[in-house]
Each structure stands twice: as C-alpha cells, then as structure tokens.
Amino acid sequence: MLDLVVVPEKTLPAIHFISNESSSGQLKRLEGKVAIVTGGAGGIGEAIVRLFVKHGAKIVIADIDDAAGTHLANSLSSSTIFLRCDVSSEMDIQNLINFTVSRYGQVDILVNNAGILGNQTKHKSIVDFDANEFDKIMGINVRGAALGMKHAAKVMVPRRSGCIISTASVAGVMGGLGPHAYAASKHAIVGLTKNAACELGSYGIRVNCVSPFGLATSMLINAWRGCDDQGEDEAEEEVEKVEKRVRSLANLKGVTLKTEDIAQAVLYLASDESKYVSGHNLVVDGGFTTSKNCIDL
Ligand SMILES: NC(=O)c1ccc[n+]([C@@H]2O[C@H](COP(=O)([O-])OP(=O)(O)OC[C@H]3O[C@@H](n4cnc5c(N)ncnc54)[C@H](O)[C@@H]3O)[C@@H](O)[C@H]2O)c1
C-alpha cells in the first residue's frame, strides 16, 4: 500500500512516497502470502504462478506434469515448489494441503485452475455423448475444484481467513462455447463458487472464480488443430493462428487476450484490493458474453 507523506517544502520539493515496493519498483501485493496453484505447470496456471511470485507469494505448483512443473519451480524463486498432484484424487489434494502447511505453516490462497477440455472432435454432438469422458471431465474440473475447496477450507476456517479462486470459463456463462461436458463442468464451478462463498463467508474466507475467453494455451491449440508434436517455430505459428481466430470471434477489438491478463484478474481476487468481493464470477472476455450482436442505436 502507498502511504502519502507530505514533507516540509524546505527539505524536499514536493511529496514523497513510502511503499512496500520491490527493488524493481513494483508493488508486492501478496507479500508473505502462501498460495497453491493447481494446473500451475503451464498455460494460464503458469502465468498465475509467475505473477504471484513477482508479488512476493510463496507458491506450491500442483500439477500432473512433473517435468514442466519442476522446471518452472526451479526457474523461479526458492520459495516456489512443485508437488505432483492429480486434482481428481482426494488423497493427492489432502497431501497437497498437508505438504503446504508443513512447509509454509499456512494456506492463504488456493487457485483451482487445473482443467481439461476433453475430446472436442470425437464427442461433439450430444448424440455421441460419452459417459466415461463426461465423468473424466467432471472428475478433474469439478470434483477437483470441490476437493480443493474442502481441504483448503479445513485449514482456512480455524484461521478465519483465506481466499479460494477457481478458473471457470465463458463456457460456464453461456451455451455454445465448448463441448457439452466441459460447458456443464464450467457452469458447475460457478455454482460451486457461489455456494462455497455463502458458507465460508462466515469465517472471513472469500470464494470467487474467473471466466476467461479463448487463450492460445496448449488446451485450445490442441483442440483446434489435432494433437501432433511440433517444433518451436511451428508452435509459435500455432499460437498466432489461435490468437487470430480468437480475435476474429471477439467483441472487443484491437487487443489480444493473453494468459497474463487472466493472471492479473486472479491477482486482484487474491489480494486485499478485493477484500469485499466474494461469490463473484469475474468474466474476462472483452464483453463477449454480454451481447450477441450490438444493435446500432
Ligand atoms: N485456454 C482457454 O481458452 C481457456 C478459456 C477459459 C478457461 N480455461 C480454463 O483455464 C484452466 C487452465 O487451462 P489452460 O488453458 O491453461 O490449459 P493447459 O492445458 O495449458 O494447462 C492445464 C494445466 O492443468 C494440468 N492438469 C491437467 N489435468 C490435471 C489434473 N488432473 N491434476 C492436476 N493438474 C492437471 C496440466 O498438466 C496443465 O499444466 C482450465 O481450467 C481451463 O478449463 C481455459
């Protein structure tokens, strides 16, 4: 927080600022906080981890991708650790919370970000609905988030403080923006967020979610192209292709949605700036879900 101190004119010409800025001049909005980011090894989760680290948080990256998670943790501060965790497993989630508490003494922030889209091309129509695929998607996207809330709440309630943020999607705001199971899972996250916020508010714990529009992470790149491995140049081209397609679908023109933009929204919900915000779905879609076509009135 910035504190304005007016000093006498004779000693200094104007106004001097005292703040909790880092040496790079950036305000550290999560100084001293302990955060868990599921699905933090890549994509949106990675952007959240990177931004949280810049803002002084101690982080546990929880993911099933050991190589990417370990590499990311090692490339960041010494207070960033990777722990393998499949969010659909209650034992893994319990272990994640216990590990974080034993390592850092507390859990201030849980970001339930891990999620999968499912096989978009194979089971697109409701008549081809695959119940096993549905269970898998719900198991990771919804059960994973609910288990995260359960075990985080167990350690947050006694401290009467904490903050839980889940990654939903525009596919959880309106229909037609993803496969059926995925859309159902993201609507469920919005509902779960509101219900948990209702209960946990009594303990000073805030529960929110963010709903991004399309981002060129491996999730969308794979869904829009097939899944063959590519070289670095080709991968860059794929990112540009997906961003171009998202820009063409977007309502807000002249900007490209980046994972860093979602990380900024999550940072806001995790920090004290949003101290009275709970049960909220922060939609980051450039106005896409608020109207179909603008009528020129
Ligand atoms: N990319 C988009 O356009 C978009 C839009 C809206 C919402 N989202 C949501 O954002 C979140 C992150 O997606 P992303 O785009 O970064 O995808 P991504 O595929 O790039 O990253 C997902 C991460 O989750 C991890 N993960 C997958 N299953 C897991 C499990 N069972 N346990 C733990 N970790 C697991 C993966 O290893 C990966 O690191 C998801 O919940 C997704 O539904 C993405």
TrEMBL record:
One of its GO terms (molecular function) is oxidoreductase activity. It holds the Pfam family adh_short_C2. Keywords: Oxidoreductase. Gene3D superfamilies: NAD(P)-binding Rossmann-like Domain. Belongs to the short-chain dehydrogenases/reductases (SDR) family. Has no tropinone reductase activity. This is Short-chain dehydrogenase reductase 2a-like. It comes from Erythroxylum novogranatense.
